[in-house]
């Protein structure tokens, strides 16, 4: 049996908890593959928001990404 690194698990839970405001129990209860999908999607959205440097944009919202 291979165990998942404890520190990595905490980083993932902290990241998703911060951005998605999901509870510790919800995040910890996810299967590894599902949590990885959420990490990938959330990271991609976060990158797009951070890369949005258009002069006409005064602020970016994670909800306004198209």
Give average pLDDT, whole number: 83
Shape descriptor reads: globular
Low-confidence stretches: none
Q: Please outline the major beta sheet.
A: none
Q: Rg to the nearest angstrom?
A: 15 Å
Series of H and E elements: HHH
Describe the structure.
The chain is mainly α. Helix content is 61%, strand content 0%. The protein has helices at 6-20, 24-28, 32-51. Helix 1 packs across helix 3 (32-51). The longest helix has 20 residues, at 32-51. The radius of gyration is 15 Å and the shape is globular.
Produce a short descriptive summary:
With 66 residues, this protein is an all-alpha fold. The chain has helices at 6-20, 24-28, 32-51. The protein contains 3 helices and no strands.
């Amino acid at each position: 049996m291979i165990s998942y690194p404890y520190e990595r698990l905490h980083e993932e839970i902290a990241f998703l908890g911060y951005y998605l405001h999901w509870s510790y129990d919800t995040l910890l209860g996810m299967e590894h593959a599902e949590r990885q999908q959420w990490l990938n999607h959330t990271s991609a959205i976060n990158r797009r928001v951070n890369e949005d440097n258009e002069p006409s944009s005064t602020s970016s919202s994670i909800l306004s990404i198209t």
